[in-house]
Each structure stands twice: as structure tokens, then as C-alpha cells.
Amino acid sequence: MGMDSTLAVQLLIQGVLLGGVYGLIAIGLSLIFGVMGIINFAHGQMMVMGMYISYWIFVLLGIDPYISLVAVAAAIFILGWLIQYTVVNRILDYPEAMQVLPLVSIGLILENAALMLWGPDHRSPQTALGLDSMWVGPIMVDTSRLIAFVLAIIITFLIFIFLKKSNLGKCIRAASDNRTGAVLVGIDVDRIYNMSFAIGAATTGAAGCLLVPLLPISPHIGHDFTLTAFIVVILGGMGNLLGALVGGVILGVAE
Amino acid sequence: MALLEINKLTKAFGGLTAVDGLSFEIAGGEILGLIGPNGAGKTTVFNCISGFLPPDSGDVTFEGRSMVQRQPFSICKRGLARTFQIVKPFPAISVLDNVMVGALLREPSVSIAQAEALNIIDFMGLKKMTRQEARGLPLPLRKRLELARALATKPKLLLLDEVMAGLNPTEVDELIGLIREINDQGVSIFMIEHVMRGVMALSQRVIVINYGQKIAEGLPCDVVLDNAVIEAYLGKEFISAQCT
Amino acid sequence: MNRLHLLLVLILAVLSGLPLVLSKYTLGIFIMIFYYAYLGQSWNVLTGYTGHISLGHALYIGIGAYTSVFLAQHYGLSPWVGMFAGGILASLVALILGFLGFRFGLRGVYFVILTIAFAEITRLVVSHIEVLGSFSGIFLDFDPSFRNFQFRGNIPYYYIALTMMVLSLAAVRLIEISKLGRFMVAIREDEDAAQALGVNTFKYNMIAIAISAFMTALGGCFYANYIFYLHPDSLFGMGLSIELILRPIVGGMGTLFGPILGSFILTPLSEVSRAYFSKGGLEGMHLILYGIITILVVLFMPKGIIVYVRQWLKPLIPERKGDD
Questions:
Q1: Domain ranges of chain A
Q2: Could you tell me where the beta strands, DSSP code E, fall in chain A?
Q3: Chain A residues with CB inside 8 Å of C302's CB?
Q4: C-alpha B103 chain-centroid distance
Q5: Which of C189, C191, C206 to mutate against chain B (most B CBs within 10 Å)?
Q6: Among A126, A251, B75, C147, which has the minimal tally of Cβ within 10 Å of its Cβ?
Q7: How many other β-carbons are positioned within 10 Å of the β-carbon of residue A126?
């Protein structure tokens, strides 16, 4: 293998690995859209919140982001549940124009809360595996990217299993297919919506943890990730979860 | 020459052929009724004629011009207006403003269009609600508003999609009177209707379709005695109630 | 002339006299009130009246600002002329966006994303063009004269901004009572029904977006020559797009006075809180307040504050007759 083709393969692999994380961010967005027809314009900002929580757990307690992931996902789950309960549930019947604004506002609030709490500086923690890399034959792979990719795939897989097999997952799919029908068979749709938004949020929070070792955190990167997630979801088809993963990998490679 | 000619119209959704090689015509000044069981393809026929759905094959000719591949607004400009089965009022504006949108199609002056709209509102018996928001109207009045708006575009042919559904017998009779008056002013009418009282009172001719195909055509009183029609749509009780 | 008109004339007279008594700082706040009322009114044409939500209107501000400044710096063209060049360019870009959106049926959230994408792409492109100052932006030389659209002190800007706000009000009023405005509202209420009544919805959507972009771009030219500094992130950024739509939403979308009312409420709040909070080291606090206010308004007053003001003013508004 020549020098150039090695480099090309290496870039391709880096792209695929990052794409897995993009896919995970987008799956949350796609789930929320698929179930409620709402676009979460605060998605990237929620992810940034996850990144900060993971960062502080690492700095203060020395716990690696890969381990704090579960706690962070839980925290963002609660954040998502609160947002759904207080705001989103009340705007489901609004015209689309009016649905956009509260979510954009939530993004604005989260972004500036981060700015006030932690300042505008870029922060990048020195995690254990931060700069490690390993060689697969002639190809170098960043260890943290590889771990991020593997964990992203595992989480994606778990979400699939959850939606396919669990009772709650089946209810979520029913409510997203036909709201009225779900109400008629006795599903508590409000609760399903709370859960869906919260799970969508937790997913993006987990993705945030995976990105902590990979890129510097600042309050303002959130809205770029909201846009990234849009693009991924549109590439993969709105509301289509598997599409979101494929879209993420396409975008990761394209970058 | 007929006002509207439908020639071998076909429209399928996936594997389901909603309209299957349907041909018929409407003469100027006529009231034609279209009946058939639910899912027979009646509204799809309307959507194909009014430009909201492109037919897969076949032709729709209005005053000698093909209407296929025209947009709905352009078909309306030619003089072919429709109402919707599920009414679509402009909810946040007044009844007057609703009707004025139709009137402005032919009348560039806003003040003259307003005068015309007020006349139509009066004619349709909506005068008391002139300034009310359309969203506040009860269903029977919303159906009238739908008809008033279409009328304001000064059509030569009106397609009415179940304007009598959900009305009580008195309201149906009132509407029969209004539609007859509209027809007397020279507007041809093509109506989908399940309310047989209206169909029988108004139609000069009736077409019956089932599974997208024509199963009968003729005078209302002949059609309702047709065995195929009784079988597919009306049921035996209807005949014993109406034609004895 | 009825009592409502009298009230408006009175308010206008008071506003015209304010520079005689107010300090430079307070005048600056009023300039921003008029400027954001003007922008809100421009956005209102597309989103409030025609119903297509744009979250990328900063695009047209940026185009107006950059075009007029570029033409002035490189070709010596007066911004008074350049602003219309910017307006026309903004309309053309808006028509391309509109063509993609309206021809291919991108509705609702898809249209929103399209508007964001156009603004973001333009921001990135401008950030990489050398003659437009790339990332660092353009500083304007201070050379005050009427021809250069630059003045000493705030008073000339005050009157220009006030005039723009009043003209935009008049323009939207003319649209509102015309056939164009009635068709726009019909599209907002139900696009299919409008089509069925013979409204060429594509044509009227395109007219609405072109007018809205043109008006917005004129505002951009004003801003450039008031602030003397152009920066791609602040002129094309999503932050400005959000700023711009908050006022008409809080005031009342799709109404004539909503954007003005919204600006009179939010702009002073924003200016004062920005100054107050940044002194205390709380830079983001005023944006958090914005967010909370918007959510509260959307949840509890979705038609805007104008509804309540109308009720107070009811005695002034003549009863409409059936045939007025």
C-alpha cells in the first residue's frame, strides 16, 4: 500500500469513527421528531450541557468520561424530561411556526447558562486515553475515537432493542405511528412523550461524553451540533433511526 | 360540446386503483350527481379534475381545453371551482375576508370585491356572521362559507364535495333551495353527495361509481332502481322507503 | 380621522420632539427601538402575514450592510443608493431560497432549516472573502456627510430610524388592505384552500419573500453606517436572526403594530439589562431573560401582547359597520 492510499484509508476510518458519534446525536433528534413531529432546536445545547457535566466530573472527581457517561445521560434525561413536561407538552398542538420558538429559546437559555457558569473559554481535559493512538497494521487510529465509536454503536444498539422489545419501547413506536390510535388502546401518550423527549436528550448527552476527549468544550459549539444533527437526520430521512446512523457516518466521512 | 369531459381517467395509489378508466361528461347548465359507497373514489375524481392530484392517465377537458397538468389555481381561474369535503376555512380571519379572497380572483378593486362578497354572504344567509372569525362558526355554517367562497370566484362549474353531510333535514332543504338558485343563474354543478334527499331533489342526472368504475348512469329515479346500484350502495331498504 | 389616528399622530409628534430633551444615551436606545421595530416589521411580511417562518433573516441584514459598504468603499457609491442595490441583491437571494422552498414544497420545519442553512452558508462564504474583510470584518472610516450616510451625534440617526419605522408601518398597512395582503393571509391560513380559490400561491409566496428581504436589507445598510463596523458572525449569525423575530412575536405576529409594540417593550429591557448584567460579569444573562420571556409569551399569550393593548384601546376604535 502506498503512502497516499494509507492516508486515505486512515482519514476514512477517522471519519467513520466520528460519524458514529454524530449518528448517536442525530438518533436523539430523530426519535423526538419521529414521535412528536417536533424539531428539538436545543439539541446541540443539551449535548454541550452533557459535555460540561462530564468535564466537571472528570476535573473534580477524576472519573473518566467513559465511566461518567451513565450519570451524565441520567442528568440530561432529567433535563429533557423537565423541558418536555414544562414546555414542549404545551406546544404540541401549536402551528409549526410557534413550535420552533420555545425550543430555540431553550437552546439560548442553555447556551448562556453555560456561558455564565463556566465562561467563554475553550476547555479540553487531559483524559487518560486522550492522545493515545494505536496501530492496526500501517494505519493509526485514535484510541478515544475508537472507543467513542464502539460505545456509540453499543448505545444505538441498546436503543433499538429497547424500542423493539420493551413494553415502553413498543408504546413509543405506537404513539409515533398514530397518536389517536395509541390513546384509544389506552396508552398514556403524555407519559410516552415525556419519555421519548427524555431518552432523545439522554442520547445526545451520552454523545457529549464521548466527544469530551475529542474536542474542546465551549458554550457556543452547541448550535453547530444542532445543525450537524439536522443534516445527518435529513441525509438519513426524518424519523428514521437507522437512517440517522448511516447519515452520521456519511457526514463524518465527508468532513 | 360538453362543458366538462372526463375521458378514461385513471388514478392509482400504490396497488389500489382509486379511479379506473372513468369517462363521463357534464353539459352546460346541468346538475350532475356522483354517488357511490365510501372509498369508491369519488373525492379522487374531484381531486383529479381540480388539479390537486395528477391523473395517471386519461384526460380532463373543460370548455375544450385540457386541464391535466395545470395547477389548481389556474383551473379555478378558468371557471372551475371546488369545495372540500373536510372544509378548509381561513380560520383566523372574518367570514367577509374569507369570501373576499374568492371575489378578488376576478375583481382587482378591493372595494368592489368587498361589495360582491357582501352580496354573496347575504345570499348564503351568513349576514349575521359577516364580521365573525371563521373558526367560531358551527359546521353547517362553515359548509355554507365554503360554498360562498367558491361561488365568489364566479365559476362556470362548481364541484361540491358533500356539502350536505352533517346537516339536519331543515338545513338540507335550505341548501337545496340555494343550490337550485345558483344553478338557475347559469352555474353548472357537479356534486358528490351521500344525502340522497339532496341528490334526488337536485340532480338531473346521476353517476354511480364503485371501485373507481362507473356502474350506472342516468336519471335519478332510474338509477336508484338499478340492481347493481342497490347491491353496491343503497341497500334494499332505500328502495322501499323512496319509490313506493 | 378617528380617535385612534389622532392618538398615533400624537405619539409621532412626541417622538419627533424627543431629541430636544433626551440625552445621547437615551436617544441611542430609541434608535435601537425603531431599528428593531423596522426589522420586525420586515420579517412580519413573510412570517406574520404569509406564514412561512424564517430563522435566517440576518442573511438579508448582512447582504444589505455588506453590499452598501462594499459599493461605497470600492466605487464611491453613496449608501443612499447602495442600500437599494443591497435590497435588490437580498431580494434575488431570497427568490432563490423561495424557489427552492416553495417550488419543491418544503413546508414548516423544512423551510425553517432552509432559511438557517442559507444564512449559515453565506456567513461562511463571506468569512472567507478577502475584499469583504474575511473573519475580522470591515471597519468603516468616519467621514460624516449626508452623502456618506454618516453623521456626528445621534440626532440624524434618530430621525432616519424613526422615518424607516413609520414608512415600514405605512408599507405594511398598504399591503394589508390590498389584494396582495389578502392573498398572503389566505396562504398563511390554508395554502390548499387559497389555491382552490384561484390564488397563485407560488407567485404570492415569492412576492412576499422578496419584499421582506428587500426591506430587511435596507435596515442592514442603516445599521452598518450607525455602528461603523461589519462582522460576519454578528451580521449573518443566528443570534441576530433570533433577536429580530422576538419583538414581533412578543408584540403580535401578523399584526400591524405588533412588531412596534414588541420593540418598545423588549429593546429597552435588552439594552438596560445588557449594560447592567455585563457590569456584574453576567454576560449571557440578558439572553437568558429573552429566552424565558419568549417561552412565557408563546405559552401564555400566543397572539402577542397586542391583544391586551387592543382591549385597553377599545374605546378609541370605532365600531366597524357591516359595509365599511
A1: 21-121+147-250
A2: 133-136, 139-142
A3: 94, 98
A4: 18
A5: C189
A6: A126
A7: 9
pLDDT tens-digit map of B140-168:
999 999 999 999 999 999 999 999 988 99
Domains recognised in chain B with CATH numbers: 4-88+155-242 (3.40.50.300)
Domain C24-315's class?
mainly alpha
Q: Which residues contact C258 (CB under 8 A, 6 or more apart)?
A: C40, C44, C48, C248, C251, C252, C304, C306
pLDDT tens for residues A80-126?
999 999 999 999 888 776 788 899 899 989 999 999 888 888 888 77
Label the pairing between strands C138-139 and B65-66. unpaired
Does the beta-carbon distance from B73 to C198 stay under 8 Å?
Answer: yes
**Distance (Å, whole) CA A149 – CA B132:** 59
Q: Between C209 and A4, where is the model more confident?
A: C209
Please indicate whether, in this complex, the C-beta atoms of C195 and B84 are within 8 angstroms of each other.
no
Asked whether the predicted pLDDT for residue C285 surpasses 90, the reply is no
Strand pairing class (C138-139; B188-192): unpaired
ipTM: 0.91
Q: Chain C: nearest CA to B122, how far in angstroms?
A: 11
The answer to whether the CB atoms of A109 and C298 lie below 8 A apart is no
Which of A242-246, B209-213, C141-145 has the largest mean confidence? B209-213
Interface test with C, best of B46, B73, B121, B122 (most C CBs within 10 A): B73
CB within 8 Å: C238 and A223: yes
Average pLDDT for chain A:
84
Q: Which residues of C touch B161 (CB under 8 A)?
A: none
* Gap between the Cα atoms of C217 and A76, Å rounded: 40
Going from N- to C-terminal start, the domains of chain C cover 24-315
Residues of A near C (CB-CB distance < 8 A)? 39, 87, 90-91, 94-98, 100-102, 104-106, 108-109, 111-113, 115-116, 120, 219, 223, 227, 230, 234
- What is the number of alpha carbons within 13 Å of residue C143 lying toward its C-beta? 10
pLDDT, chain C, mean: 89
C-alpha cell at A155: 448505545
Which residue of chain C is at minimal alpha-carbon distance from B115? Answer: C323
**What's the pLDDT tens digit per position in B211-233?**
889 988 999 888 888 777 777 77
Q: Do C177 and B127 touch (CB under 8 A)?
A: no
What is the DSSP-derived secondary structure letter of residue B128?
G
